[in-house]
Amino acid sequence: MFKVVRLIFNFVLDIKSIMNYLKIYNHLIETRRNLNRDCYLEIHHIVPKGVYGKGIMDESSLTDVEDENNKVLLTGREHFVAHRLLHRVFPNVKNLAAGFFAMANLSNKKHKRFTPNSRAIEESRIASALSQSLPVATYRLSGELFKVFKTTEEAAKFAGTHKATISASCNIENGVNNVAGYLWRRYEKKPLKKVEPFISENILNSKKVHKYNYKGEYICSYSSKREAERESEFNRGTTKKLSLSKGFWFVLSKKNPIKKIDIKYTATQKRKVDQIDKKTGEIIKTWKSGREVRRVLGIYGVSSVCNGKRKSAGGYLWKYSDIN
Prior knowledge:
By secondary structure, the protein is α+β, with helices and mostly antiparallel strands. About 35% of the residues lie in helices and about 15% in strands.
């Protein structure tokens, strides 16, 4: 009986604490709304982007998250306190926990972030551990879903960066969206198939990379050299408009891709060749090049057969593997 009473008493205390934190948060916002201050200030979203539209906070007077009524100018310290209060009001909301951790631990050239005491930093780390239990989805800069990770640690390992950086990039308010050439978002049940694309002046002015197979048939496109190198066989160091790498053609262009490009093969380009039985017409073996056949089997004239200048060589038929 005593335990039950104590549990109820603690529950009531928790409810009172939450109500007090919410009251303090609302007071902080209302008293700073119309202040005209000549000092360093940061924009704070009263209903943060990470929870907007989820029914967690009152949004009845707002048209969208960027509504001017949803913004207030705060000092670095006030901004930190606001996110700490939000985390305490909604301790189980992981996006708010991630936002609190970011405010306590991250800094950059644009923001003169307030440096909290060690107790606040430790509280933010506990909040961060909570937020990192959510899976992470990564998106291409164009906004399409690319890959899903069970934990922040897995995502950080893939990106070659720290967990805190991934956590910061998952919180839209931090403006650290582009990490390792990807966009990052947390999700609870299912990841979004598409998010708002990341567009910068460099991307707008850069050339796209279009990928084609050995026959010159279009496969796919990449928004930048970096993305093409990361996800395919492309060599980012090349400056050629048309280049061949590991059996694929790559075209650098600002224009949209075409279905098929004209390929002019040169004598120096390696092409796989099929060794074919004269009687059955079955492929015996596929060789990396005619030169390999000459080196291993001592058979000359393989390229002449492939180009239609001879009927056979070494008692076999030969053809380029990329020709049907």
